[in-house]
Specification:
Strand content: 35-45%
Structural class: mainly beta
Distance between the termini: 39 Å
CATH architecture: 6 Propeller
CATH class: Mainly Beta
Strand order of the largest sheet: 1-30-29-28
Radius of gyration: 18 Å
Helix content: under 10%
Length: 329
């Protein structure tokens, strides 16, 4: 099991180790654009229920400093904003907002509802312990028991009817692994990540959790780690590292692969689109994003991946209103 290295020298040395050779594939895919979001946004959280894509919280056009709606109803900064895109009609709608403005919220869909955990009330700081559930039928948010500790940029995935909350940040990156049971509304603890990090991807596939890349405290210390949690053994193991060190990317399961799209680094943003095959423990390079993005998420609806909004440059100074759609034959 990996242990958290001494900060700076040891971390950088580990991350700059030779990357694995990419497997060959014809699974390349194409990108297209869908209808623009009504508001430019980044550091959003993304999930899908049925044919509807949900985009929750984040920064708005004015950047990461909280403000409210102006007198005309225009969103200057949209941290509480929740919007949905109906793939069948091609239309965006504005829904009931989060109870308060937040960015970097941990979000996952389970049994027809959205579960939102933690987040920041300021840019990458002031973590909160908020927990809420959204019911699309009622267009309403309801409070859940608060997190045991405040966390922003916590990664969330549904597995076997429960929600796993992994990593995140209070003041520094953490290795925390919480399990929330919607039936009992209780949190339990599970084995922590081998290396604590935030701005990480987390997905469930084949009865296991896959924690992809992320950062240790800041994007100058991005990682390429792949950690695999097996609930049968209650242990983490290491998968083949991602060819690039990234954080703030969108991670999603698509056609029996785990895709890591976009991301952020000190010098800018990534267009990288790399796919991990859990069966062969290999990474593949796919068709890159048309433009670099970070601070977004992705969800699969039908045969396509939908990736909304995000920052075209590193940090929170610029947002976007694009909806990129990835499809393979």
């Amino acid at each position: 099991m990996r242990r958290l290295p001494t900060f700076a020298t040891a971390v950088c040395a580990a991350l700059l180790a030779a990357a694995p050779v990419l497997a060959q594939t014809s699974f390349l895919g194409t990108w297209s654009k869908g209808p623009q979001l009504p508001v430019e946004r980044s550091e959003v959280s993304v999930a899908a229920i049925g044919s509807t894509l949900y985009v929750v919280g984040g920064y708005g056009a004015a950047g990461p400093n909280p403000t409210a709606l102006d007198s005309t109803g225009k969103v200057d900064v949209d941290e509480p904003l929740v919007q949905s895109f109906d793939v069948n009609t091609g239309r965006w709608s504005t829904l009931a907002p989060l109870p308060r403005g937040l960015n970097h919220v941990g979000l996952a869909a389970l049994d027809g509802k959205l579960y939102a955990f933690g987040g920041f009330s300021a840019q990458n700081r002031s973590a909160v312990a908020d927990a809420n559930v959204y019911d699309p039928a009622a267009d309403a948010w309801s409070a859940l028991p608060a997190l045991p500790t405040a966390l922003g940029s916590v990664a969330v995935a549904a597995l076997d009817g429960k929600l796993h909350l992994v990593g995140g940040r209070d003041v520094h990156s953490v290795a925390t692994h919480l399990v929330f049971d919607p039936a009992t509304k209780r949190y339990t603890t599970a084995p922590p990540l081998p290396v604590g990090r935030d701005h990480m991807g987390l997905v469930a596939y084949g009865g296991k959790l896959y924690a992809i890349a992320g950062r240790i405290d800041d994007f100058d210390h991005n990682t390429s780690y792949v950690d695999v949690y097996d609930p049968k053994t209650n242990r983490w193991s290491a998968g083949a590292p991602m060819p690039s060190q990234r954080s703030g990317m969108a991670v999603v399961v698509y056609r029996d692969r785990i895709l890591a799209i976009g991301g952020e680094r000190g010098g800018g943003t990534f267009t990288n689109n790399e796919a991990y095959n859990p069966r062969t423990n290999e990474w593949t390079s796919l068709t890159p994003l048309p433009e670099g993005r970070h601070g977004t998420g992705a969800a699969v609806i039908g045969n396509s991946i939908y990736l909304p909004a995000g920052g075209p440059v590193n940090g929170g100074s610029r947002q976007s209103d694009t909806l990129y759609i990835f499809t393979t034959s």
